[in-house]
């Protein structure tokens, strides 16, 4: 099964996070996996907050916020949340596998 996305589509705003996570951070913050995970969770949270804000603006009939823009933000937040759940499930499975190993 090939899940590659063609280069003709515009990348989502949070997709570069995985590439940035591989490089060590030199800004005095957390380094490595924990920093990458924290950044990814903050990105997902920000996307969900933005989607919620846009939903409220559409409900208040703000003319500067389009329904299309709101639906795209909701889908981005949903995809990010689903990816976060997959990562969490894999981490729990890896932890369970390690704990069940015989020494």
UniProtKB/TrEMBL annotation:
It is found in: Bacterial flagellum basal body. Its main location: other. Residues 1-12 have a biased composition (Polar residues). The keyword Electron transport does not apply. One of its GO terms (molecular function) is cytoskeletal motor activity. GO terms for cellular component: bacterial-type flagellum basal body. Pfam families: FliE. Residues 1-29 are annotated as: Disordered. InterPro entries: FliE. Keywords: Bacterial flagellum, Cell projection, Cilium, Flagellum. GO terms for biological process: bacterial-type flagellum-dependent cell motility. Belongs to the FliE family. This is Flagellar hook-basal body complex protein FliE. It comes from Acidovorax delafieldii 2AN. The lineage of its organism: Bacteria, Pseudomonadati, Pseudomonadota, Betaproteobacteria, Burkholderiales.
């Amino acid at each position: 099964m090939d899940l590659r996305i063609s280069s003709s589509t515009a990348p989502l705003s949070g997709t570069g996070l995985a590439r940035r996570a591989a490089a060590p951070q030199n800004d005095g913050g957390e380094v490595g996996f924990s920093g990458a995970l924290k950044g990814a969770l903050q990105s997902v949270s920000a996307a969900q907050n933005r989607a919620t804000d846009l939903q409220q603006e559409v409900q208040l009939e703000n003319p500067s916020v389009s329904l299309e823009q709101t639906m795209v933000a909701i889908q981005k937040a949903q995809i990010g949340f689903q990816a976060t759940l997959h990562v969490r499930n894999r981490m729990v499975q890896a932890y369970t596998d390690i704990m069940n190993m015989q020494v």
